[in-house]
Structures are given as C-alpha cells and as structure tokens.
C-alpha cells in the first residue's frame, strides 16, 4: 500500500501539468478561432461595402448617362468616369473667357438635365477649367497666366449654368491651369484636347450641406 500511494503521489503532479497544458492549448485555440472568425467577418463586411460602393457608382453613371443622353448622342459632350467634358474650342476662342454662341447654346441645353440629376442627390456640380501648357502671350494683358485664364473660364461657365437654371447652391468653379492634361502638349491636337472645361457631380462637404441656400 505504501508503494501504491507513493506512485499515485508521483503521478498526480504529471496529470496536473498535462491538464494545465491542455487547458492552455484549448485557450490558445479558442483565441485563434475567435481571431479567424473576426477577420472573416471584417473581410465580409469590407467586401459588402465595396460591392455596395461599386453598385452605387454604376447607378450614378447610368443616371448621368440617361440625363445627358441627347448631348452625348450628338457628340457635343463626353462622359468619362463621371466627368462631363466640353472642348474649350466649343466654348471659347483662344486665350478668351467670353462664351461663344455655340458654347452658350450647349450650356443652356445641359442645365435642365443636370438640374434634374442633382435634385434629390447629396451632390454638387464642380465646374473645372483647364488650359494647355503654353504661356499666356505677352500682348494679352487680361490674364496673368494659365491659372487665371482657367479660373475665369470656369467662372464664366458656372455663371452661364446658373443663368440657365441650375441653382447657385448646386454648382461651384475650380481652376487647374495646365495641370492634369489629358493628352501630351507636344502638338496642336494634344494642346487642343487639354484646353477644356469639365463638369463633375461630387459629394457635398459638411460645410456645403449645412450652408443656407439662397
């Protein structure tokens, strides 16, 4: 009996250590499982958010295409990634910010479909002016540089759209000068493509959304 009791006394600590080890392994497994499940849930949530974002962008593109169906079909404007492009030569003479009759007529035709598109959406129309990279001629004292020329052209288009019916709280102007060209400025064809005005619906900022309309 004494030998048996001694054997039990020696074996008991071994079983206790084994039990502690198994408990630790089980705890580690549970932690890993929880971590994996959490990662899967986060990944699923991210994928769902990305899918919803893509669907919203696709619906936005289709709505914009529908609103501009007529001018797009006539080739008077382009639509690329939500940006509505108008050639600068249609709107303005070289180095001028005065709207040409054809340009004003085009803007008048765009005002109503753009207003309809913007209504009910938390978006505002950004009108952006761009130029080629050639410096303003020395004899042109009206504009200091391409930044000023692009700014004045954007303002001119913005005012024309407001006069044609777009609410003033739903449109604003931006100038980019010779930045962000869409073609090389190596020849006249490329420079002509870079002299342009773009319009793009963008989300309102919190400040714009809170600003009083009038």
UniProtKB/TrEMBL annotation:
Pfam families: OmpA (PF00691). This is OmpA-like domain-containing protein. Keywords: Membrane, Transmembrane, Transmembrane helix. Residues 183-214 are annotated as: Disordered. The keyword Membrane applies. Residues 188-198 have a biased composition (Basic and acidic residues). GO terms for cellular component: membrane. Residues 79-205 form the OmpA-like domain. InterPro entries: Bact_OuterMem_StrucFunc, OmpA-like, OmpA-like_sf. The chain crosses the membrane at residues 12-39.
């Amino acid at each position: 009996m004494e030998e048996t009791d001694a054997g039990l006394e020696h074996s008991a600590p071994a079983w206790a250590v084994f039990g502690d080890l198994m408990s630790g392994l089980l705890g580690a497994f549970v932690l890993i499982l929880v971590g994996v499940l959490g990662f899967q849930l986060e990944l699923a949530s991210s994928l769902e958010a990305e899918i919803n974002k893509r669907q919203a962008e696709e619906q936005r593109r289709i709505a914009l295409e529908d609103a501009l169906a007529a001018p797009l079909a006539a080739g008077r404007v382009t639509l690329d990634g939500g940006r509505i492009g108008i050639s600068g030569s249609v709107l303005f003479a070289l180095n001028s910010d005065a709207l040409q009759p054809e340009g004003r007529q085009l803007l008048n035709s765009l005002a109503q479909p753009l207003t309809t598109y913007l209504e009910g959406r938390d978006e505002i129309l950004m009108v952006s002016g761009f130029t080629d990279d050639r410096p303003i001629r020395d004899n042109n004292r009206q504009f200091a540089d391409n930044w000023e020329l692009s700014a004045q052209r954007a303002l001119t288009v913005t005012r024309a759209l407001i006069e044609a019916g777009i609410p003033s709280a739903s449109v604003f102007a931006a100038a980019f000068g010779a930045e962000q060209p869409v073609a090389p400025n190596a020849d006249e064809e490329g420079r002509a493509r870079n002299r342009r005005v773009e319009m793009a619906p963008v989300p309102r900022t919190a400040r714009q959304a809170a600003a009083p309309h009038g």
